[in-house]
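Appendix B. One record, verbatim.
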Amino acid sequence: MSSTGGKDVDEAESAQFAGLLEDSLEDLYDNAPCGYLSTLMDGRIAKVNATLLEWLGYSAEQLVGRRRFADLLTVGGKLYHETHFAPLLSMQHHVSGIALELKGADGRRLPVLVTSTVKTGTQGQPVLIRTTLFDARDRRTYENELLRARQEAEAAGIEAEQARRTAEAERARLQQVVSILRTSLLPPDLPRVPGLQAAAYYHPASVDEIGGDFYDLFPLGGGRWGFFLGDVCGKGPKAAAVTSLVRYTLRAAFLVDPDPERALATLDAAVRERYTGPDATYCTAIAGTVTRDGEAHTVTLASGGHPPALLLRADRTAHFLTTSGGQLVGALADPRFVRATTVLGPGETLLLYTDGLTEARTKAGPRYSEENLRTFAASLAPVGAHALIDALTDLLERFGDGLEDDTALLALGMSSHPDMG
């Protein structure tokens, strides 16, 4: 056989093996022991393997281009996806080993462990999300055993007692979930700002339901710090999801452009894009920056329909920083946000608050009001941020059942001795 003939045989065999390899890879993807899913950045399903389709009871035509990954999740899974999974994936481009539940075409639930990775393009831009799902049904064996034990106890004649304990346990579990979720939506601790005191407090009106109040303080570099505080419309899972969107969006907006008005405009666009039609929602917000300027701090802020910030001066006076005319975030096609600037000197403090404080009912009956708050603050001035928040915390406790809404407080101030911070 000539060398040319041998070369032709080698090329033919290489082509045959390449074809088999390509076929094997496609078969491995489709019939892998785990589910594979590829989605566009907006969540729409672009590709799904046969294994996952079999688990869920769907055809590829029912999912590809028609449904989003979040549509396959249970109600609890959708909430976790909105508030934790999606934001973490957006920031880190990878999340691993997340326990979620899928909902099949016939309504049955399938527990899975999810790992997702963002695929980027040649310029580093995110173009696709690749997700792997592992069957986690074996993890439910222990739960089923607990259920069987409870059924046997009920059959033995302790149904009422067991029901009472179950109700108490479920309420405790709900309270724990609400507490954990609420904590996850707030900064664990405020950062230390050189030359400035910073203090915050969150007072929940109910231990059983999560509200939409939020606040944050974070570094922007170059001696400048960003802050914001606000209140999302409504309560419950949707309010929590919107709160998560607000925090991540405002932080990212400030890092791109520290102008408070433009940060609120970016947030407005994000809220209106994500929540449209019957799902539309809105929030109030006040956002700004604080920059050290010699022995003082310059504060620039913008308000979107939020109660005005309260300024406590060193001369024992207190007045509101006027931002009237600012409009709600997410409610209008072209909202107006109002800017204000002030300077904090030694012994002066700026207070941001949500309307849970000023709309609380006093023991005498009427609402507390912004004017009452100004009078109360003026009686404390001059006062540092920590002492002011402590005094307001005591005030909130005294309202008791009159406090009908969650309240968030954030105070930024300078001590009478700037070098002490």
